[in-house]
Amino acid sequence: MLLNIVYEDDMLLVVDKPPGLAVSREGMGTREQETIADLLLGQYPELEQLGEQMRFGIIHRLDKDTSGLLLVAKTKEAFAFFQQQFKERKVRKQYLCLVQGVLNEDEGIIEARLARSPNDRRKQKAFAPGETGEDRAREAKTKYRVVERFSAYTLLEMTPETGRKHQIRAHLAFIHHPITGDKLYGFKGQTAPVGLNRQFLHASQINLPMPNGSTKEFRSLLPKDLQNVLDNLRT
């Protein structure tokens, strides 16, 4: 399998990640299926010693069942530069997701601190203000905008202001509108639209500061499986 490279220069690769592939082998057994990092190394063997262990220049994370844009540095200098842009919150990422229920407000901000759930270590827990344990959780802020409403679902554009693990998924579950198809954060017995076989979450746009002072914008269209779900809801 060859990765879909949507942009490449001397410093940077932009991958359009398919769903169903983990980004790296961190925490995985050796017999697991191949990862984005494995495929990267096959296409770009010079990345083997770059960045964090087993990540081969990959600058940030996407969940296994999330599709969309993934940034990969090609040099040590580029890796350090782009990581610093993330640390300083200068990178703007947008996601499209379909959530359970109909949101009334056209836009809003979710602010709830996040920490690993004491009841399920796979999950992040969002804390209400003043809730016990909130002081040990990390700041997290996500903006949302309604793109389209359906009878039982809402299509949202999400812009995370911070970069916490599972931030969008945990925040949407916190406001009682979990992502459709999300088996980890969804409610028991929740329905899913016809044809949806994964969480409806897609990394659709990145605005990235470059070393020369410019900003590049990258976009990814919804993959066919998610677009088909929306088409079915519209009929």
- Give the biggest beta sheet: 9 strands, mixed
Q: How many β-strand runs?
A: 11
Radius of gyration: 18 Å
Kindly report the CATH topology of the largest domain.
Pseudouridine synthase
Please tell me the total number of domains.
2
CATH architecture of the largest domain: 2-Layer Sandwich
Order of helices and strands: EEHEHEEEEEEHEEH
Discrete helix count: 4
CATH top level class name of the largest domain = Alpha Beta
Characterise this structure.
17% of the residues lie in helices and 30% in strands. By secondary structure, the chain is an alpha+beta fold. It has two domains: 1-88, Pseudouridine synthase; 92-205 and 214-235, 2-Layer Sandwich (Pseudouridine synthase), CATH 3.30.2350. Strands 1, 2, 3, 4, 5, 8, 9, 10 and 11 form a nine-stranded mixed sheet that branches. Strands 6-7 form a two-stranded antiparallel sheet. A hairpin with a 3-residue loop joins strand 1 (5-8) and strand 2 (12-17). The model has no long low-confidence stretch (mean pLDDT 92).
Question: What's the SSE blueprint?
Answer:
Layout: E1 5-8, E2 12-17, H1 36-43, E3 67-73, H2 76-87, E4 92-100, E5 107-111, E6 113-116, E7 124-127, E8 141-149, E9 153-160, H3 167-174, E10 201-209, E11 215-219, H4 224-234
Parallel strand pairs: 3-10
Antiparallel strand pairs: 1-2, 2-3, 4-9, 4-10, 5-8, 6-7, 8-9, 10-11
